[in-house]
Every structure is written in C-alpha cells, then in structure tokens.
C-alpha cells in the first residue's frame, strides 16, 4: 500500500499526513494530538487505570503510523510513572523523511523527557526497547491478521484507517481476534463508531459503549471483555 502522502496542519497546530487516493488522513483534521489524547489516553488508558489502579498495563496498538500515539503514551508514562509494556503493529511503515516533515520535535519541545521524538522514531523494529525503567516498546512490521502473541493485553488502541479505506480490518473476524488477544476485563478503544463494527464487537463477546467523540466527531467506541 504505497500511496502518495502529503502533510497537513490540523486545527490544534499539530501535523498529520493525508492520502488523497484513499481520502484518508492519519489523524483527525480537527487536531491530531487532541484526537489521539482524547480517544486513546482519556477514554482508553485512563479508563483502564481507573479500574486497575497501581497495576502495570500491556498495550497493543494498531497501527504505529507516524508514531504519534506511541509517543503520547510514552510521555504520559514518564509523567505519571506508569508501568507499561507497549507493542505497536504497522504493516506499511513510513520513511524517516516522511515522519521528519511532521515536525513533532518542535511540537513537543517543552516536554522534559529522556527521548525526543526524533530519537524515539529511530528505534529499531522487531526489538524490545526499555526506554525507561517502566516503559518498554516493541515496534513490529506486520499485518494485524498475521500477528500472534505469547501474552495477552490489557488494552488495545485500534487505530486502523477508516472502514472505507481498510474494511478488512473492521471485520467480525478481526474483532474476534481482538477479543482473543485481550485479558479478562481488557479494553478495546477506537475513534470508530460504525454500527457494523459495534455489532462485530458484541458478536465476539464484548460489552460495547458508544461515547461522545473528540472534537469534530459525534461518537466513538469503547468495548470491554468480560
């Protein structure tokens, strides 16, 4: 899937990439950082931590994309001293040049952390990296359909392209696979609120919740494994 991409500036001042062929952007035009923080950190990670205080969390992300969501999670873990094991999947990694154009280094310049975004994104694939004593990251170049794991996850950040661009990743089969990958009481969260996706999650065994979405989006979905 090697489509031409170009940079756009979103409404919160952060950048993202757009693929005109797919009519798809990597993040919301209403705010790349704002959407990521709202959907995945607030309604995903914070929700899980509220139910499991003082516990370590294993997170699976689909997909790595620009690295923004992974980096935001790392920043939160640094700030709050959270114990996180993070695995991110990406079938079609962006080049270093494409990521560099987004200028995330400047956007996060006021965050006092041990890894700047530029160094963070140079981390190798297929290798577990201990970025701090409490945050481990493994980036894997693989399709979700081919991914297997020796351990289960507590939280899934499901951030595939929209249904119109990648319908195969929103199938009942993929929702069932998410259920299998999660631990009991595990949480699945996504910006997507499509009815067929919700029904697929429920058929897999999840309890689903329609939530108010981030700016520019009416609803989003969270699902809990019981």
Mind explaining what this structure looks like?
- The chain is α/β, with parallel strands linked by helices and 226 residues long.
- It has helices spanning 32-51, 68-80, 96-100, 104-107, 117-120, 172-181, 195-204, and strands at residues 5-9, 15-19, 24-25, 57-62, 84-89, 128-132, 135-140, 153-158, 182-190, 206-212, 219-225.
- An eight-stranded mixed sheet has the order 6-7-5-4-8-9-11-10, sandwiched between helices.
- α1 packs across α2 (68-80) and α6 packs across α7 (195-204).
- It is globular and about 45 Å long.
> In the CATH hierarchy, what is the superfamily?
Vaccinia Virus protein VP39
Shape annotation = globular
Strand content: 25-35%
Q: How many separate domains make up the residues?
A: 1
């Amino acid at each position: 899937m090697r489509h031409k991409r170009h940079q756009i500036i979103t409404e919160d001042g952060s950048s993202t990439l757009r693929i005109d062929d797919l009519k798809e952007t990597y993040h919301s035009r209403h705010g790349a950082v704002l959407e990521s923080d709202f959907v995945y950190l607030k309604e995903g990670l914070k929700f899980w931590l509220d139910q499991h205080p003082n516990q370590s969390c294993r997170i699976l992300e689909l997909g790595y994309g620009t690295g923004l969501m992974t980096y935001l999670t790392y920043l939160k873990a640094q700030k709050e001293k959270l114990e996180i094991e993070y695995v991110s999947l990406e079938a079609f990694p962006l080049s270093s040049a494409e990521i560099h154009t987004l200028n995330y280094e400047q956007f996060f310049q006021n965050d006092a952390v041990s890894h700047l975004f530029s160094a963070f994104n140079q981390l190798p694939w297929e290798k577990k990296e201990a970025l701090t004593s409490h945050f481990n990251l493994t980036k894997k170049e693989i399709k979700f359909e081919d991914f297997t794991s020796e351990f289960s996850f507590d939280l899934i950040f499901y951030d595939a392209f929209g249904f119109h661009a990648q319908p195969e990743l929103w199938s009942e089969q993929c929702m069932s696979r998410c259920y299998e990958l999660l631990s009991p009481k595990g949480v699945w969260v996504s910006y997507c609120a499509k009815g067929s996706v919700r029904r697929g999650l429920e058929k897999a065994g999840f309890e689903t919740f329609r939530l108010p979405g981030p700016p520019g989006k009416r609803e989003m979905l969270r699902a809990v494994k019981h």
